[in-house]
Structure formats: C-alpha cells, structure tokens
Design goal:
The protein is an alpha/beta fold. The protein has ten helices and 15 strands. It has helices at residues 44-50, 138-142, 144-156, 174-185, 197-207, 221-228, 246-252, 276-283, 295-308, 322-334, and strands at 3-8, 19-24, 32-41, 67-75, 87-90, 119-123, 127-129, 166-169, 189-194, 211-214, 234-239, 253-261, 286-289, 314-318, 340-344. Strands 3, 4, 5, 6, 7, 14 and 15 form a seven-stranded mixed sheet that branches. α4 links the parallel β8 and β9. The longest helix is centred in the C-terminal third of the chain and has 14 residues, at 295-308. It starts with a strand and ends with a strand.
C-alpha cells in the first residue's frame, strides 16, 4: 500500500507537539478527488489550534492546517468535472458550498483532519479548479483559501464594494495585504495601519497602499482616518484587532459603513470594554463577524485573482520536513512577516 508523511497534534500545548507519521494514501470514493498537495499556507488559526487556545471544537490528534493548493492525481468514478493533472485549491469548510458557515464542524484543521500531509481525498464539490492560464505559484494559490476568501467576504459578502470607496485595513498580515490588493484592483482607495514604519513603507511601495498610518505614532488613529477622508470615514474596515481596536474602528467608519470583524489579536480588559452596541448605533454601522466564507466565495475570489494574475503576498516559504514546519510556525508567531507564510511540498 502506498504511504505518505502526515503531521498530527497528539496533544495541543504547542506547535512543538507536532509529530510526523507514515500513513496510507487514501483512496477517493466515487464522488471524491485525490489531491497531491503542493503547498500549505499558514494562518494565525493554526497557531492557536496548536496551543489549545482555539475557541471552537478541534478533533483529537488532528492533522492541522486548512489551506492547500495542489494537483489532482485521481478522480472518483462519479466525478466528471475534474481530471488528473488539474491544478486546484479546496474550500476551508467542506460543508458550506454557499451562504454563511453555520458551524465549524466542516472545517479542515479543526473538526476535520487538515492538510499538513502529502495527499488528501476530498469531495469534488468542495474543490475549485485553477485556470491553466494563471501564473500564480502554488503558495500564492494556497493563500486564497482562508485569507483570500476572508478578504473577499469582507468586501463583497454584504454590500459589494464599489470603485472609489475607501477601505481601511488593520495591520500588515495576510488578510490585510491581500484585501488591499483586491480593493486596489477593484478601484478603491486604501488605507493600512501598522506599528512599523518599515512595514508601511514596504506595503506602500510594493502593493500601492494609498495612505498609511502608524498606530503607535497615532494611538487615536481614527482621527488620521477622518483627516485622510475629509471626515467621511472608511466605507469598509477589515478589523483584525478585536476588542482592543473595535472602538477606534467604529470611530473611523463612515456613516452606514461596514466593519468586518476578522481577528482577535488585540485583547481588552473587561473593565475597559467599549460599548460596541452604542458606538455602532451612533454611526448606523454594520458590524459583521467573518467566518472565512463559502466555497462559492472561494471560487469568486479565485476567478478574480487568477484572471488578473494579481501578485498575492507570500513573504516566505518553508520546506515540509519537521524542522522546516516548526520554523514556519515560529516565523508566523514572530510577527515579522508582511503577507503569508507558506510550506512547500514541491
């Protein structure tokens, strides 16, 4: 029987708990495809899954990570829309083809075994084919799964973004920089924040951010957003901070604007928690929790990105050996990166 290398978390105290084992390569069922994984993109979620801080269910001895790109090597007997050799990505949540994710039970790298392995068999309905005309690398394609879909959902999942509107991105991680690229390509004006002038300069020079704000230099950065927009505010905000930044985000948003709550990187003591309901009411703002997105949204963002061959932000790519994978997690946690950290199996 053919075998593969598989990473698992027998316990979840740290990513250093990752073990490597040899397991059989699965045989696809009649409605599945077998994918040779070429790249895995890491997310902050993978780190909190590994250390037991993920607030949603995780199966025992889970194979971590959710974001893959690869090639189909075998198709089930009832699969007629894919063929051997097709380049593909797969949806984060196997159960949500369209609409909102209703729970986390279908999520790869959580309730379902994930993608930190060489081969995976998945339902063909959860897989998206990549155009052969695309020039994106496997790591760039893998970064579409969570990061790309999350950014797309933030910009198009409620009231679709229009050219000329303003979008504010908090931080220079994968979702923010990918969202900036999508928004720029759609004709929006973009503002991005960071505590590092070096990162801001890099994002402005490489990805064309229209305006940058150092939130350490400007702790009340909402005032800078309002200055830059002639007191209009940002029509869309990709909110990665959570409790620690939500008040400034609501101060920054335009009346009737949309704040997409994506992350929880900035904690806030309970006694200093802002009155989010009153603040949102004061702006007539929509505050949306973003649970990645559906397969349909992955398909939409993949089509947009690959048609335009947008240069998605992959900063560093590591190998598939255990030392390399540990190093990739360490680099992710260090916060040095601008954009995505990926693992290559090529």
């Amino acid at each position: 029987m053919a075998t593969q290398q598989v990473f698992r978390l027998p316990q979840r105290n740290s990513f250093h708990d990752l073990t490597v084992s040899t397991e059989p390569i699965p045989e696809p069922s009649s409605q599945e495809v077998l994918i040779k994984i070429r790249s895995v993109a890491l997310n902050f979620r993978d780190f909190v899954v590994s250390n037991g801080q993920y607030p949603f269910p995780v199966k025992d001895n889970v194979i971590p990570c959710s974001d893959l790109s690869g090639d189909i090597v075998k198709v089930g007997s009832q699969v007629d829309d894919f063929a051997k050799g097709d380049k593909v990505v797969a949806s984060f949540d196997l159960k949500t083809l369209y609409g909102a994710i209703r729970n986390w039970f279908g999520s790869l790298g959580g309730c379902q075994d994930g993608v930190l392995r060489e081969y995976i068999a998945l339902p063909s309905v959860a897989v998206v084919k990549i155009s052969p005309d695309s020039t994106l690398s496997y790591p760039q394609l893998a970064s579409l799964v969570c990061t790309g879909t999350t950014a797309w959902n933030s910009l198009y999942g409620n009231i679709p973004l229009k050219p000329g509107q303003t979008v504010l991105f908090l931080g220079t991680g994968g979702v923010s920089v990918t969202g900036l690229i999508l928004a720029k390509a759609a004709g929006a004006r973009t503002i991005i924040t960071s505590s590092s002038d070096e990162k801001l300069k890099h994002v402005q020079e490489k990805y064309g951010a229209d305006h940058v704000i150092n939130y350490k230099t400007h702790p009340e950065w909402s005032k800078e957003v309002l200055k830059l927009t002639n007191n209009h505010g940002a029509d869309y905000i990709l909110e990665n901070g959570g409790a620690g930044t939500i008040a400034e985000s609501i101060n920054s948003v335009a009346y009737g604007g949309i704040i997409s709550v994506i992350g929880f990187l900035s904690p806030c003591p309970q006694d200093k928690m802002p009155d989010v309901a009153a603040l949102a009411l004061s702006k007539g703002a929509v505050v949306r929790g973003i649970m990645v997105g559906s397969k349909q949204q992955l398909e939409d963002v993949t089509r947009f990105v690959t048609t335009k061959n947008l240069d998605l932000p992959v900063e560093k790519v590591f190998g598939f050996g255990r030392e390399d994978v540990i190093a990739a997690f360490e680099y992710l946690v260090s916060g040095q990166h601008v954009g995505k950290v990926c693992i290559s199996l090529e």
